[in-house]
């Protein structure tokens, strides 16, 4: 979900010396039919459990109680039902999806600050307070297909959105379109590299033929003039849109090389190259939660108990007993197995008989801050005034980014995500009241998109995952890990194994933390292990 | 519409010394409220004609005959009707849109080679044989909004599509994902520039602070290791998709610096930076022709005569007389004014009384070749096998590119554009029969996406604009112009003025040739001029 997650994943992988495997690019491999499909789970292809696996093998009925109706829990329930397991899924909230939460008119939530918000967005308008985008490689798209959830492109990159960075550097506090930031940055680095190679500064590395080929590339990449300089480019945009007749629009003037380099206006372009952020990206039509309502519909009314707050989870002889409160009543369920997808930071609060080392391991998955605030505007000023149709503006202010809607294009209203921040930038918001959050978001946002940012506001709604009941974390950050995976971390590895008949699942036990894909692959791994165990127990 | 058009536009603008105007980036300007909205036509904002302009000014009824029901003709008719002009629009085809042509089941066409094709695509499937994408700045989006045409994102860039270049160079005939091509290219140019600056090769240009800032940028931009080398990146993709537990996917190995530079695998990345190709891009839901059906619906049944082949267009005293054939009958219409949007290459074939210099000027707008072939597959192999959801693969073969559908994601079938080529690459197709075109497209396409490219084909349909009746050209290339505009070209400028009461309009008279925006802005200019003339003639 996050730039910083991707950055740290890369660092982490490199730290482990994994860089430089035996393969070539996945795309090229699968083109040649040499690689497994992208959705495969590494060496082991997931095979959904089948009823026939159990017939004649494991006798009788097999039951599983699943704790949590987010992506991992629902996916596990869905896959286990394929083989006829008796599944009970306990979800504390009144809705499926967990941290996949689409906020729309009627959404009501009391946060852990004690504040209750009720969303009054217009019909058909929403934003995803949690997961909002899907990369092409993730099996999330496979579930969309399998469940009949319609998807659409998600605008994860837009030449017309802007960067605006506070600071003392050149071009500070200036809103610069991505197209201009990229054109100037690429222009000058091309000019510089061409100059250096022309001077022979890299002759020990490059042959004359290399230099010729590189020069040809750089002239195109940087849009350089015939004398090898960057002097501007139509890629930056025009003073006004070119039209017919003699209306050539008028070229713009690039910023100086010094300002571009020292201002760091290209600092965020690598976001677009990230493995799980590069376009094209996707999202379900009507909200990310459509996936989980589809899971719930598939499971039918008997499997999921909403409003079920789990209080106790204990291995007992030949099973697991879970106690929970629902509708004010104490209840209990005992099943052959349990899959616990409750966030690792909340599991230790249950009554349990887990070993101390497991509790310690859960504690190594540290909760993190992230949140969003959505504003419904009654005028799509970003389209009408700035020709921005989707995508996000970025800043080093606490709001971090402003995300524009990818739906209702050309309509009369729309929901803008006024901040999506994490870490320290989010902590600046999470203890505030909603009104204070909105004020801060408007103050920072109007520094980027002007005074109109504060007008035509119909309503707003915010959420902070650290202050959201039943989550209290946006995603897990593993203690001591350089990144978001846990191969080298004993605590992570420990939790991959069941504790007797209790299995843990969730994106925190994957290499795609904060992604639905991580939750799904974790659920699949647990379902596979559990199913193999049952089938072998005949 | 085309890379090469964008490239030549840029060269052309620079040739005229227009580079380096007085402004800053458009986006930043409009952010600050300093610039006109992007859709404005340069210095002069288009104001639709109003009935009140004529009341008490020009007496009586005012009539205009419009030749051609493509974007320029329909836009002109639509705007003139706002002020109550009596408009007759003659369109030779049986449909609106001209070169905006969405091919779907039931589409039938006999081309100038004499071959008749009937499209049998499944319900809801189509491709745009002409215009297929809309940049955010273009007024095409304003007309979509005004006419209630729903738009969606168009995948004009995709990390999972591939490049594959024939030749003797390294990595020739190898399918490489865009994500890998970009990661390796950016990695090595970052490594090289960092090395050069570290060596002091650019110390006359860069201060130490500049060098530090540049280095920080390059490490991020190229995903360099701590010692400043490019040794691969997760941005390239993984050997297989990372999942849960210990499935880290496995990193890939980058190509060598020499191969990347000499192979030119990054040669096409600048396509994504083009002013009118940079994401986000848009297209109407259901086909680009939805815009023109919406125009036609707005105009109502009395304005447009389909199947009307114009034979003669002559200025007569106080009007223009147009003769045409419809339903086998000779017909004639005389109006106060005429707007001729017939392609410039076809106008001289009419009977006319235009001056010789006008005919010569029309001849300077030279017709060009372009065309597409759409294949309906009964399996979405690009999604299932290659995780490609939209976007295009590119090659230097004659097919030039393979465009994947931006609709019906996750469905059971879809239409792939198996080539979209222009110039010499298209001339290799246009004289072929459809069967021959398909065979050539499959042969080249399967070199890129494998043998599956030739399987699961339900049907196909192709078109070549040079061989398409009533067009005979994809777009105009102005003689002697370095690019696609015509400021410095007397022939272009001559045609901006009316010949007595005949006005010319079309994208060929704009600085957005091959774009609907060019046709619309041209139509608006003509409507404005005509309306001002009528109002002044009171």
From TrEMBL, chains A, B:
<protein>
    <submittedName>
        <fullName>L-amino-acid oxidase</fullName>
    </submittedName>
</protein>
<dbReference type="InterPro" id="IPR006311">
    <property type="entry name" value="TAT_signal"/>
</dbReference>
<dbReference type="Pfam" id="PF01593">
    <property type="entry name" value="Amino_oxidase"/>
</dbReference>
<dbReference type="GO" id="GO:0001716">
    <property type="term" value="F:L-amino-acid oxidase activity"/>
</dbReference>
<dbReference type="GO" id="GO:0009063">
    <property type="term" value="P:amino acid catabolic process"/>
</dbReference>
<dbReference type="InterPro" id="IPR002937">
    <property type="entry name" value="Amino_oxidase"/>
</dbReference>
<dbReference type="InterPro" id="IPR036188">
    <property type="entry name" value="FAD/NAD-bd_sf"/>
</dbReference>
<feature type="domain" description="Amine oxidase">
    <location>
        <begin position="72"/>
        <end position="529"/>
    </location>
</feature>
<dbReference type="InterPro" id="IPR050281">
    <property type="entry name" value="Flavin_monoamine_oxidase"/>
</dbReference>
């Amino acid at each position: 979900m996050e730039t910083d997650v991707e950055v740290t994943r890369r660092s982490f992988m490199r730290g482990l010396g994994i860089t430089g495997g035996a393969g070539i690019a996945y795309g090229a491999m699968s083109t040649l039919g040499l690689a497994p499909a992208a959705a495969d789970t590494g060496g082991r292809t997931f095979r959904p459990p089948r009823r026939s696996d159990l017939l004649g093998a494991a006798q009788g009925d097999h039951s599983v109680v699943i704790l949590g109706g987010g992506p991992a829990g629902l996916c596990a329930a869905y896959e286990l039902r394929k083989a006829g397991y008796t599944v009970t899924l306990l979800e504390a909230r009144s809705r499926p999806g967990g941290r996949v939460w689409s906020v729309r008119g009627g959404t009501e939530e009391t946060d852990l600050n004690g504040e209750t918000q009720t969303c009054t967005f217009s019909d058909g308008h929403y934003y995803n307070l949690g997961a909002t985008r899907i990369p092409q490689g993730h099996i999330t798209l496979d579930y969309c297909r399998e469940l009949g959830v319609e998807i659409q492109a998600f605008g994860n990159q837009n030449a017309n959105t802007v960067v605006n960075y506070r600071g003392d550097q050149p071009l500070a506090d200036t809103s610069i379109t991505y197209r201009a930031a990229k054109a100037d940055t690429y222009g000058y680095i091309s000019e510089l590299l061409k100059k250096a190679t022309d001077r022979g500064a890299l002759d020990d590395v490059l042959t004359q033929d290399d230099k010729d080929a590189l020069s040809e590339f750089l002239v195109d990449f940087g849009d350089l003039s015939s004398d090898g300089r960057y002097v501007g480019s139509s890629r930056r945009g025009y003073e006004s849109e070119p039209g017919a007749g003699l209306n050539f629009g008028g070229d713009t003037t690039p910023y100086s090389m010094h300002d571009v380099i020292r201002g760091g206006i290209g600092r965020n372009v690598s976001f677009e190259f990230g493995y799980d952020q590069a376009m094209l990206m996707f999202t379900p039509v009507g909200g990310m939660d459509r996936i989980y309502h589809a899971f719930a519909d598939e499971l039918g009314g008997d499997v999921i108990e909403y409003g079920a707050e789990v209080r106790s989870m204990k291995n007992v002889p030949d099973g697991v007993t879970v106690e929970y409160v629902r509708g004010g009543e104490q209840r209990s369920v005992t099943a052959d197995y349990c899959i616990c997808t409750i966030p690792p930071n909340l599991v230790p609060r249950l009554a349990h008989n887990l070993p101390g080392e497991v509790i310690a391991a859960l504690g190594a998955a540290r909760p993190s801050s992230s949140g969003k605030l959505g504003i419904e505007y009654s005028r799509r000023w970003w389209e009408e005034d700035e020709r921005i149709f989707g995508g996000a503006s970025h800043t080093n202010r606490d709001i971090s980014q402003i995300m524009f809607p990818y739906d209702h294009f050309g309509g009369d209203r729309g929901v803008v995500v006024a901040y999506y921040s994490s870490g320290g930038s989010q902590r600046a918001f999470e203890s505030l009241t909603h009104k204070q959050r909105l004020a801060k978001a408007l103050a920072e946002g109007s520094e980027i998109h002007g005074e109109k940012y504060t007008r035509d506001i119909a309503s707003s709604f915010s959420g902070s995952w650290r202050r959201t009941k039943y989550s209290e974390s946006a995603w897990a950050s593993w203690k001591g890990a350089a990144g978001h995976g846990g191969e080298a971390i004993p605590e992570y590895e420990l939790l991959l194994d069941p504790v007797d008949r209790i299995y843990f699942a969730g994106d925190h036990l994957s290499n795609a933390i904060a992604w639905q894909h991580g939750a799904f692959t974790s659920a699949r791994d647990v379902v596979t292990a559990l199913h193999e165990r049952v089938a072998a127990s005949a």
